[in-house]
Amino acid sequence: MQRTKVKDLLQGAEVGKEVLLKGWVRTKRGNKYVNFIAVNDGSTINNLQVVADEKFSEEALKDVTTGAAIAVVGQLVESQGKGQAYEVQATSIEVVGKADPETYPLQKKAHSLEFLREIAHLRFRTNTFGAVFRVRNTLAFAVHKFFNEKGFVYIHTPIITASDAEGAGEMFRVTTLDPINPPLTENGEVNYEEDFFGKATNLTVSGQLEGELAAMAFSDIYTFGPTFRAENSNTTRHLAEFWMIEPEMAFYDLKMNADLAEEFIKYIIRYALEHNREDIEFLGQRLAEEDKAKPQNERQEMTLLEKLEFVVNNDFERVTYTEAIDILVNSNHYKKKKFQYEVSWGVDLQSEHERYLVEKHFKKPVIVTNYPKDIKAFYMRLNDDGKTVAAMDILAPGIGEIVGGSQREERIDILVERMKGVGIHEEDLWWYLDTRRFGGCPHAGFGLGFERMVQFVTGMGNIRDVIPFPRTPQNAEF
Ligand code: ATP
Ligand code: MN
To answer: Which residues form the Aminoacyl-transfer RNA synthetases class-II family profile domain (predicted)?
Structure first.
């Protein structure tokens, strides 16, 4: 007999028929005469109710406890009870894998997210994390679908890299040298010429530079892969290992880049709303519950579903960095000295500034463009004013920066000048500069942090709760 997934059973496709159902027990309740077993197999947030009547002795059901894996044969019927349309009238129940109720850590009561993080190997089995990771899966699929429909080529950029030129963040060294007794140079420094790759290597902080090389042949490419940053900051928005999506487009300027990013974000949110509505509704209720415990002025104005639909149906706000600074300096918040960090032309926007713009001032996602060149990467295209670069950050409510991107500097003399300014040697990036020498063209791209996107769509406040096994300072369990 073929197993049917709970999601399909709940749609009633096989009503009246004998079905085989496999999954994990969420709860069992009942009495001597009848027991109701809620079974979940991960295919949907909803459980399927299995009814075990007096045919089943107490002995036969003693190992049917929360967490156990079971296989049930029975008839799928319309449910008499409230709360579900269909249920299975069991004829046989096999316990495939027991879960000792004395030691199984997931009990019926609600557990805190912090506690569940410590048992991340089991948290997939909760409603919340089931919903989060189904949404994550859908978003990942939608990313590929979006770019594939637009004719973008998916490029796998290297994870181990010797280029430390990007300057995006602190890097993790990759080495096979003996940490206790490494070979040394005459100056007493570690001699990486004797290392595996013959030079010092790291885990990548971004696939952009390699992505640009591919865009100079395929026109439109994207990467979607793991990225590593040894940032020793314990925030709710930073991981040491995260997934990034980096499209790169030849013959695009900054405006086209921003248009694509906005269309892309709306597309994948809409796709999740269409395919994971129940999960998102559940997560929205979770948030609403959490909100009740907060003081009135910290509560969300919109529910999760309302927020997502609002984002999908409204244009993002677009402002220049200079306009953003003006808004901040003229705000009451600023006048009352409520910003912790300085605000003036030339400083980098801090998270508090970004949140003010997005959450208080515009109340919608904002694309900030044309930042001062000194606070942005060397490869961003210098504007005619000589002071700003064609950069763009997209800021989202509750998250802050979700996208960072720019039009790239295609003019080799200016690029080399900017590299010198930040101490990058031309020889180290000879291959990158070659694309400006041979058939160079205006081009642009951006990086979207996938986990921040998942946070936005699921409403989860901590980035550690949207990746199965988070890597953060002092933590690499599982
Ligand atoms: P932030 O200022 O938030 O640290 P960043 O300026 O370092 O971001 P970029 O280098 O532009 O970010 O990276 C592109 C995108 O990758 C960001 O917009 C963000 O969505 C995501 N991102 C950056 N660092 C992290 C991290 N440590 N963990 C998760 N996502 C990240
Ligand atoms: Mn950063």
So the answer is: 133-468
